Amino acid sequence: MNWQWLRNGLGYTVCLLICLGGISLALPKQQNISGDVNKLSRTSTPLLPEQLQQLAKTITVKISAKELLGSGSLLQRKGQIYIVITNAHVLRAAKPPYEIKTPDGRVYQASVLQAAEFQEADLAVLQFRSPDVVYTVANIKDASSLQIGDEVFVGGFISNLTNQKLSTQAAKIFNNQFLFTSGKVTLLLDKALEQGYQIGYTNDVRKGMSGAPLLNVYGEVVGINSLHKDPLWETPEVYQDGSQPDKSLQELITRSSMAVPLKKEVLQNHWENKL
Fold first, then answer.
1. 218-270, pLDDT tens digit by residue?
2. If phi over 0 gives left and psi between -120 and 50 gives alpha, with beta otherwise, what is residue 77?
3. Which residues are registered as beta bridge partners of 140?
4. What share of the chain is helix, strand, coil (3-state, %, to 5)?
5. By CB neighbour count within 10 A (0-12 exposed, 13-18 middle, 19+ buried), where does 145 fall?
6. Model's pTM, two decimal places?
7. What angle do CA 162, 93, 168 make, to 5 degrees?
8. Distance (Å, whole) CA 162 – CA 222
């Protein structure tokens, strides 16, 4: 046997492995902060309230300009690009540039995407790039799966405008509060109201939570929380076709928080065309 050849071959192999290991260590890696949360949003078993709250915190972001404007939902990822959906009225509250603060506290510059599919709905789409961190995105479920009386959950960030009497320091603390509420579906309108509102529920939601995900018991996003109950203005009174609900239905609409439903197929087609 040629021992010299064997020694040289082994030496070459060891050197090659060391070099490859060094290269792999030198390559940039994406940090994955999702943990086991991805499993929570893809289960066929109803989740506990604690699990739903954890999931909501993971897929909900803050949207701001100079101050908190509202919440947003992480709905799609393709490579390093993330899609966030929120309410159009959230973005109308201030001019760009907009920033997105993710659950790990990082802040990203966001750009607005034009979405023809949402022109009649109170929805807006943002995107941002995260080269280093992998975030959990929501699992979308068509709102047609809901029934009256189903439990639903909303988690979002309260705006400091909710309590204008707070001191500056207290307002900053209050502004960072993540509120998670539970309730039940009260309305599933056959046709959408102006701005696309169609799902009503009893959840107590507050200013700043617009754009947050509306979750079912399985942790799936069925809509985007858009309007709190008993609003002082912008009460939805007319269907998109121009007709009006009867008086009793209008009263129930006013007493309900409202969401714009999501349609999974429409969203997937939109993302494929945009990304």
1. 999 999 999 988 776 667 779 999 999 999 999 999 999 999 998 776 565 55
2. beta
3. 221
4. 30, 30, 40
5. exposed
6. 0.79
7. 40
8. 26
